[in-house]
Specification:
single chain; about 90 residues; alpha+beta; two-stranded antiparallel sheet; 7 strands; about 15% helix
């Protein structure tokens, strides 16, 4: 069931925006292929607003050459696709 939700999101979402207007537009087909999730809790429980919650988009924290050099961890890349305080998902 969880995987189905992620796959459904990948088909329609093209832009994710946070409350601070940070946004990320990347091929959301990467989300299904590389295990991005919508997270509402962490090891301590629900992610509160003071922890940049309540919803995050998070993905892998390792270098994965199958998604291209632009997606690598570093100053730019995969980690830039994480969205904290998710506010809006837009699709095409």
């Amino acid at each position: 069931m969880k995987r189905s939700l992620v796959v459904a999101l990948t088909l329609i979402v093209s832009l994710a925006t946070a409350l601070d207007d940070y946004s990320s537009s990347f091929p959301f087909t990467d989300a299904a292929a590389h295990d991005f999730i919508l997270a509402i809790n962490d090891d301590q429980g629900l992610i509160s607003p003071d922890q940049f919650g309540p919803i995050w988009i998070v993905g892998p924290m390792d270098d994965d050459p199958t998604i291209g050099e632009e997606a690598m961890i570093g100053e730019e890349g995969m980690h830039d696709r994480w969205i904290w305080r998710l506010y809006r998902l837009e699709g095409e």
